[in-house]
Amino acid sequence: MKLNDIQPKDGSKKKRMRVGRGIGSGKGKTCGVGVKGQKARSGVAIKGFEGGQMPLYRRMPKFGFTNIFRGELAELSLGKLQKAIDAKQIDAKKPIDEETLVKAGVVRRKKGGIKLLSGGALKDKVELTISAASKSAIAAVEKAGGKVNIIVVEVAPVVRKPEKAKAAKK
């Protein structure tokens, strides 16, 4: 075999269609685009347009609401916490807070805080200081002889119109 003998497999390569080469070619005049108008031009897309009829996405009912003040919490299960204690990443005898969990690599990042969830089992007695915890997780920690302290983060109220707030104080 020589380099000049190499060819692609039969049928794997297709020749480019040459358009605009006369009516007899089959792709002459309009070049397969159709007739005149918006769709014959390049770069025009009419996505979601239904000929003046109300589009489907506007006929569907609206529902739900997004709370812009909602805090995002990182999740930590009891099983993952126990695995970190067994691997000696965390010392169970010392108090464990959110910074300790992040430094040990148990939680990737703190986000708005860390929430303890009850997935898995906890054997060791631990003292946790975290942002939130489920009732079942708190019960499991207390059953193991530990304690959960919840950090209460106070958020200042949002004042929409400061002039009215000042007038209300006087």
Please give a structural write-up.
The chain is elongated and about 90 Å long. 22% of the residues lie in helices and 12% in strands. It contains five helices and six strands, in the order H-E-H-E-H-E-E-E-H-E-H. The protein has 170 residues and is α/β, with parallel strands linked by helices. It starts with 55 loop residues before the first helix and ends with a helix. The strands form two sheets. A three-stranded parallel beta sheet has the order 1-3-5. The protein has a three-stranded parallel beta sheet with strand order 2-4-6.
Briefly, what is this?
This protein has 170 residues and is an alpha/beta fold.
CATH fold name of the largest domain? Ribosomal Protein L15, Chain: K, domain 2
Count of individual domains:
2
Q: Give the biggest sheet.
A: 3 strands, parallel
Mean pLDDT across every amino acid position: 87
Radius of gyration: 33 Å
Distance between the termini: 96 Å
Helix content: 10-25%
CATH class of the largest domain: Alpha Beta
